[in-house]
Amino acid sequence: MIPLCAPGDDCAILFARTPISGRVKSRLWTHLTPEQACALHCAAASDMAALLAEALPGIPHWLFFSEEPAACPEPALSPAEGSEVEGRNRRELVERAEIGSAALVLPPDWQYAVQQGTTLGDRMAAAFLRAFASGARRVVIFGSDSPTLPPRVPQQAMEVLADCDVVLGLSEDGGYYLIGCRRFDPRLFHGVEWSTPRTCEQTLANARSLGFRTTLLERWFDLDEWKDIERLLADARRGVSLPRHLAAFLKKLEIPG
What we know:
Blueprint: E1 11-16, H1 34-55, E2 61-65, E3 111-114, H2 120-133, E4 139-142, H3 152-160, E5 166-171, E6 176-181, H4 199-209, E7 214-220, H5 226-237, H6 244-253
Parallel strand pairs: 1-2, 1-4, 2-3, 5-7
Antiparallel strand pairs: 4-6, 5-6
Helix pairs in contact: 1-6
């Protein structure tokens, strides 16, 4: 297992489900086919990666898949020449914008790994422990469902870790779209009920019991339900600029309104 970074580096990790049609974004199947929902997932994750590359330049960036991409019936990554992936040939990931595509697009120099563990807490704990074992100074894990975040938010997440131990970016549903640590204890995630309105509250309670100083960042929304897609569409109609891959997806989807 290769190190995630050099000693003293900061590290940004993007958690994403491996894009397999029929296994992602099931709450959107009321309005999208499983293939379209998978393509939306890829667009959001691709835009999130681009956001992190822009907002946090000069540090190691990793995409942690939920399972080995080789298990996908479609390629999880679109190959070309250029950036490095764990245990594979060097390649750059290029856009596949058509509806139904199951390919993620990563900026150059990103690498990928596979999450380890059963629950989300187990998987994030393993990623934090691996990064800090590599000598990381500050580590932030981002979810893949908030690609409309302003670039200032990832920057703030790293910056505030100079003065606190844990930073959380709050989601409107009671969870969080990012969690960062300057020091880590696996007990931070013990007993947390994932994907519930209490997820953030329980994580904060654990942080307090461990004596960790915490900082909360602004609340934002995830792309989990159809109302979230309608929110994006309303923004687009008002002239709000959407991230590149999401904009291409919605344009090709041709939703009226």
